[in-house]
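Blackboard transcription, Thursday session:
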Amino acid sequence: METDVLIIGAGPSGLTAALETASRGLDVTIVEESFSMGGQFIQQTQLLQSLPSSYQPMRGFELAGLLTKQVEDYSIRCLLGHRVIGFYKDGSVGISDEINVFPLKAKKIIVATGAAENALAFPKWTLPGVMTIGAVQTLINRDFVLPGKHAVILGSSDFAMDVALQLSELGVQIKGIIEKTPSLTARDAEKVEEVRKKGIPVYVNSSIKEARGIGKVEEIDIVHGEQILTVSVDVVCIDGGRSPILDVFYQLGCSFSYQKELGGWIPQYNKSLQTDREDVFLAGNAAGVSSQGVLLTTGMIAGVYVSESLGAISKQEADIETMSLWRELEIMETKLYPDAWKARMQHVENFEHPVLKDQFIS
Amino acid sequence: METSYETIIIGGGVVGSSIAYHLSERKKEGILVLDQKFPLSGTSGSTQAWVWVHNKTPSWYAEFNMYSAELYPYLSKKIGDVEYKRTGGLSPFFNEADREKALLLAEAYKKIGIKIKVLSREEALEKEPSLNPEVAGATYSSIDGNVNPFRLVDMYMRAAKKNGVQYSTYNKVTEIQKLPGKFIVSSRKGTFVCNNLILAGGTWSRELGKLVDISIPVNQLRGQILVTEPLKPFLHYTISGLRQAFNGEVLIGYSMEEEGFNRATTLDVIQETANMAVHYVPQLKKAKVVRAFSGIRAMPEDGFPILGNIPGIENLYVAATHSGVTLSPLIGTLMTELILDGETSIPIDRYSISRFDLAIR
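(Written on the board underneath:)
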């Protein structure tokens, strides 16, 4: 099997990258390990305000539906339920349908593998009922299952505020948001205000000392200043932030550098979102964890430059188009995460100095 | 950190750390280990970690390996649990012609006291019922086994540190000066002086040799290893090419490629390796492979260890070998004897670097 552009991951950035390339007449193949497109947008019911100008504000799952439909309107090969599991010596990509493995030769690859949630460990954190906040959102919004009735949230990002409000609307009692730093880390003041209005207790400078329970989590001890508060709960949501998923980049031999504000180790890339491997581009959270609007835009930028590298458009056209995309990206990212934008610029600037060629990061 | 040491060991892998530990057992002061990265980030951390004697040839080399395997039970007592298991080793064969070769090997081993049995098909299947029923037979040796390489190196390091050994990691050696009676070792993090210098750089031995203008002919061989999901314990023996770890994962690896220091994995080899494993143990067909990794192994030009003094340079030693896990207790012991006593309890002349041309080319 052969294709011009292989896109690994059918999340929001993979899909916008697919649209940018397919709309310019390129042969595009998407590989996606789940059975639906749209990635994490599928379970996001919150209104996404900050999107690129080509999209109206809408809810995550609506946007997932819209992107999926647009992709289906082009003749893009969508391999759902398939995974990239490695690379052959001749450079072709090994794709598994969980029974067989077959090679695919791609002229260019866009890696849009997204990010994975980080865990925060505390004694007895493996008790059932302790889960990541993303898993909680998937349960309530995608699977329509309530994870429990009494919850605490460990961590206080914007995403934690979203899920706190969603849980609260469903009648789950939020018994506390526990944050180890002196203030909430969420940047969206409106949402924080909404959470306060709901009367959800917020414990800053606090942490979970331990969880207890037989067969499931039943209570936790919160260290709050000098005090230890025992709270009975059946769900603990861990909001430990996210880090880019890097496996494919290791296999491709890309170089990495560390940018704390973008989620830790990320592949090095230039303004074209091209890695130090000339045929490998990247997009979305894999290029640095950020907000939904930014993900879409990075997919578009990667798509434009891949089109250019395959001769579908001129360099001049690509530069003009991406100039406005980068400007939009800057506005969206600076609004919520100014430090992430700074880190991203630093990261792009560092491109000429790949730092990790022969190391294994774990 | 001091800058003056009695002995500096360059390389903190399984060989370097074993030497450091064994040396520190007898002489507690003045030992420094320099590692360009961190112990276990290279070869020692990317191995199946067999303690393997049987079907190594010729028989004198198998004997050398046997002495080392014999040291493992005592080693565990001294440095702590390294998850050493003397499982016994099985090397299956699938045609009758191989039986002849196996019998000859068994005969040669018998003379030096290594017991290997040539098993019939029925005996092989009785010992390891999961083997492919088409097996023609197997050679079996009770002394083979495996160890957890992470625990092994970690325990060597802990024991060595307890005895006063210092480690300096992420500290690549950049220059070595030979002065009368001492060496000046320059590294990324500083300059050190020592009386004895031991080169235990494994795959990087050639580069270390260049710093002292000596050719240490060690090449790199890449081995790719597959790891399955944890399966219920079903493999009783260490089988050539695969073994089941304590936690149920099966580690599988057969490949050897000349790829320099490139640690990539390739699906070509992964698929070949998986097919080989299924040929040996058919029920692995259903196992899910969760991970593949590759390790760069050290391979001296003629396959045998390079151990001992470097002729013409007093107090400069080299220890570079394949099978570092199997041989580490013995190499650590013998290098210690050589440095402190000037002679070894088991002759190592055969492994001297002087068998090669020392000129760099």
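Lecturer's comment: Chain A has a mean pLDDT of 94.
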